UniProtKB/TrEMBL annotation:
Record's protein name: Lipopolysaccharide heptosyltransferase 3
Signal peptide: none
GO molecular function annotations of the record: ADP-heptose-lipopolysaccharide heptosyltransferase activity
InterPro entries in UniProt: Glyco_trans_9 (IPR002201), LPS_LOS_Heptosyltrfase (IPR051199)
GO cellular component, one term: cytosol
Source superkingdom: Bacteria
Documented EC number(s): 2.4.99.25
Reaction catalysis annotation: L-alpha-D-Hep-(1->3)-4-O-phospho-L-alpha-D-Hep-(1->5)-[alpha-Kdo-(2->4)]-alpha-Kdo-(2->6)-lipid A (E. coli) + ADP-L-glycero-beta-D-manno-heptose = L-alpha-D-Hep-(1->7)-L-alpha-D-Hep-(1->3)-4-O-phospho-L-alpha-D-Hep-(1->5)-[alpha-Kdo-(2->4)]-alpha-Kdo-(2->6)-lipid A (E. coli) + ADP + H(+); an L-alpha-D-Hep-(1->3)-4-O-phospho-L-alpha-D-Hep-(1->5)-[alpha-Kdo-(2->4)]-alpha-Kdo-(2->6)-lipid A + ADP-L-glycero-beta-D-manno-heptose = an L-alpha-D-Hep-(1->7)-L-alpha-D-Hep-(1->3)-4-O-phospho-L-alpha-D-Hep-(1->5)-[alpha-Kdo-(2->4)]-alpha-Kdo-(2->6)-lipid A + ADP + H(+)
CDD domains on file: GT9_LPS_heptosyltransferase
A Pfam short name: Glyco_transf_9
Keywords, sorted A to Z: Glycosyltransferase, Lipopolysaccharide biosynthesis, Transferase
Length: 338
């Protein structure tokens, strides 16, 4: 009987969203077990309010807080790992592709059974005492995480993504928008990878087309911060250019992830680039039109919702035209209205 099960997901927002079906499957299989999860300050809001999780352990990545003393950050993280060790987990599941740092975190939890992926050229792992070889066949990230549950006796098709917006944040968004009976289309204009980015000019052209042909409001969303920030580059400048060029658009600045989750939850359709916002929108059940660069569709496409991915052979998002995205939006609107 497993009494305590810990998930470890130390990477980006979308990766954590893609872990939620596995967490729910473990909750169904072991309804009385304590389920914990180790996440970071950057992605933690993804699992806030999730009823499948009993305890959330949040650590800091030193690169996310450059203003803090690195030694102090490391000491705080060590204390957090010591707390997890004291909680004596039966199983720790290291979610994601193999990395030495992820493996070390799993080992340091002190869990009796430690599950994680190892590369094909490694036969054994000192960190994982129940290691699985990285999958040979292409898989969606959700399926890759689910495969780690095989040692727990869970072998099924993953269900829906799960995310639970803050009701107080939803109320705040609705009060800000002051909308009537109109379609609301959210534009999220940010992406981490340069080849996945789409220019401000193309978003402006797309917005003009949508406003001319649809009875809709457009809400503008973006990653906060300056593009010049070397640690956490944002899109404040890009958003400001779009807002000045198109006063009809409704900007909603989200300084925290919980605010972005709430904003996306009130949209009818989401237009975005590849990234965490896309997976959040999928978890909220939103139809999605997404412009992609180099991302692998098999592994990262939106899960469980109507979607259209626009990606061409050069694997550069900027080569997709505003007309192409507009046509995809119209196609999706017809599909969801029929």
């Amino acid at each position: 009987m497993l009494n305590k099960i810990l998930f470890i997901r130390r990477d980006n927002i979308g990766d954590l969203v893609c872990t939620t079906p596995a967490i729910h499957a473990v909750r169904k299989k072991y309804p009385h077990a304590k389920i914990g999860i180790l996440v970071n300050t950057y992605n933690a809001d993804v699992v806030k309010n999730n009823p499948d999780i009993d305890e959330i352990y949040i650590y800091e990545k030193a690169k996310h807080v450059p203003e803090k003393n690195k030694i102090l950050v490391w000491m705080n993280n060590l204390r957090l790992l010591m707390k997890i060790r004291k909680d004596k987990y039966d199983v720790a599941i290291a979610c994601g592709s193999y990395s030495p740092r992820l493996a070390r975190y799993a080992y340091m939890t002190g869990a009796t059974v430690r599950i994680g992926y190892i590369p094909k050229d490694i036969e054994k792992s000192t960190s994982y005492n129940m290691a699985l070889q990285e999958p040979e066949q292409p898989m969606h990230e959700i399926e890759r995480v689910f495969r780690l549950l095989l040692p727990l006796g869970i072998d099924e098709i993953p269900n829906k993504l799960k995310i639970f917006p803050s009701q107080s944040e939803i109320k705040r968004v609705k009060e800000f928008l002051k909308r009537k009976n109109k379609l609301l289309i959210a534009f999220h204009i940010s992406s981490r990878k340069p080849e996945n980015r789409w220019s401000a000019e193309k978003f402006i052209n797309l917005a003009k087309l949508v406003l001319a042909h649809n009875n809709a409001d457009i809400m503008l969303l973006w990653s906060p911060g300056s593009e010049k920030n070397p640690y956490h580059p944002g899109d404040d400048e890009k958003a400001e250019f779009i807002i000045k060029s198109l006063p009809q658009i409704i900007p909603y600045k989200t300084n925290h992830l919980r605010e972005l989750i709430a904003a996306l939850s009130v949209a009818n359709v989401v237009v975005c680039l590849d990234g965490g916002a896309m997976h959040i929108a999928a978890a909220l059940g939103k139809p999605i039109v997404t412009v992609w660069g180099s991302t692998e569709q098999q592994r990262w496409k939106p899960w469980g919702v109507k979607h259209i991915i626009l990606q061409e052979q050069t694997k550069k998002a900027e080569n997709i035209t505003s007309d192409q995205v507009f046509e995809a939006v119209q196609t999706l609107l017809k599909e969801i209205s029929s």
